[in-house]
Design a protein that fits this description.
The protein is an alpha+beta fold. Helix content is 47%, strand content 13%.
Amino acid sequence: KFRTMSEETKEDEEGKEEEKKDDSEDASLACAELLRLALLSKDLSALSKATTTRLSEDGEVKQLQRGGEEFREILMRTTKNTNNNNAGGIRCSVIVLVFSMNNCQPCVQFAPKLDRLAKEYKDLHVGFVKCNIHESDMNRRLANEAGVFGFPCAQMYDGHTGQKVQLEGGDVKGANEAKLREGLETHAYNVEKFERLKRDAFEALSEAKAKIFCGEDDDEQEQEQEQQRFVTLVKTVTAYASNAIEKEDAKYRRIKTSGKAFTERVKSVGDEGEKCLRAFGFEKKKDDDDEEEEVYEISPVVFDEFDENNKFGKREMRRVIKMLRALTG
C-alpha cells in the first residue's frame, strides 16, 4: 500500500490545491524522463559555483531540502567523481531516490527499511536520497516533475551515466522492500572493483586488437576482415564470461582449449586473445577428466564477493559485459 497525494490534500489545513495529474504509466515515464533531461542539462562547470551537497560514505540516507536543485548537485557530482575515478570523492554505482510525505503510514514503515538497505549496500556504493514533499515546496515540485503522486515511491539512477534506471515493472511503489532489493541486486556493484575489471579487460582487448591489426599496408577489405575478427573475439569472450556467471550448469564455467570456437576465435589471436579471458577471471589448468587436455575455468572466487581475494564479482562482470556488448552491437 502507499499513500496518495490526493489523500494528503484532503487533510491539508492550508487547503493547497493539488495540480492536475495523469496516473497513466506513459505519463509517469514521460515526466521521469523530462526530470532526467532537466537534471543533466546543466553544465558541470556550473557545479563548482553551486552550494554542493555530498552523499554520505557511512551508509546514511540523505534528506533533500532543495528538491531538484539539490538532487541535481548530488547527481552531477557523483557521476563526475565516478567517471573520473576520483577516489577522494563520493562515487556511486546507483542512486536511489525515495519520495515520501508526512502523515503517511507506509512511508513510516518504509523508513527503517531504507536505513537498513543503505547500510547493507554501502560496500556496493549505493547512495540513498529521500525527498519528503512536506519539507519544502521545491521537494514537492520535484515529485511532480518526476511523475510521482503516490507515496512512498522509489526511483533508481545510474551513478555512472546519471540516467534513470528502468526497473522491471516501473518505479518501486509502496513500502516494497523486496522489489527495491531486486533492483539493487541487478544494478548495484562495487565501483572500485568495476574500475579494476574494466581497466584490465580493456587493456587486454587493446593488446589483442593491436595484434590483429598488425599490418600497416592492409587494404580496405583486409581492414574490414580484421575489424570483424576483433569484434568476433570480443563477442566470444563476453559470451564465455556471461555464460559462466549466469548459467547454472557447471559446464559453462569451463572452456576446452581444443574446442573449435575457442581455437578459431580466441587461440588464433595468440596469448593476447587468451589474456582477454584471464582478465575476466578465467584460469588455465589441466582438465580433471583428461590430463592431455587444457581448459580455462572461471575462478570460484568470482562467486564469493566477501572473499578477501575477490578482485571483482558477478556484479562487476555484468556491468563490463554490458559495456562491451553496447560497443560491439
